[in-house]
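To: structure desk
From: M.T.
Subject: fold request, one chain
Message: Could you run this one when you get a chance? Sequence is below, nothing fancy, just the single chain.
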Amino acid sequence: MDDIEYDMPEDRTLLILDDDAPFRTRLGRAMTSRGFVVSAVGTVDEAEEIARQNPPAFAVLDLRLTDGDGLEVVKALHASRPDCRVVMLTGYGNIATAVAAVKAGAVDYLSKPADADDVIKALLASPEDKPQPPENPMSADRVRWEHIQRVFELCDHNVSETARRLNMHRRTLQRILAKRAPR
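Reply: Done. Structure tokens follow.
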């Protein structure tokens, strides 16, 4: 994997925020071996401190953390350094959170586990580059589940309001929300 060539920018500072220590360490090592100067932290507070003191050119942030939300860090980074390129990572991939991440200022959104080369492609991609079509597109059941999740998020996680907007019985919606995402 290390034989892929990238057009590296002059400023290669990178913040990695993830509360999964083994993943954070592996990704940090992989990104260092590819030429980045990595600061890897496990909490929102640590990441916000770096954003204030020494904002990096790039950031790879987990969306859901034990002490908060990676979207808070995106805002802190862009307040200190508007040109910071942020990629959000999450194990809970759905369209609603992807939209929220991009609206907050992330340039891309990847589901875990993400490979270091995929992260670099996302970080260094020019805005004109169009992503390749997915190898395994979502099933119709998954698209339905994603839509329900997006409406649920837009309704501030209010089950009754979401059920009303989707013209669905509240208990039916609760059963759908309690299940894992279909493949």
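Reply (cont.): The beta strands are 13-17, 37-41, 58-62, 64-65, 68-69, 85-90, 108-111. Let me know if you need anything else for the meeting.
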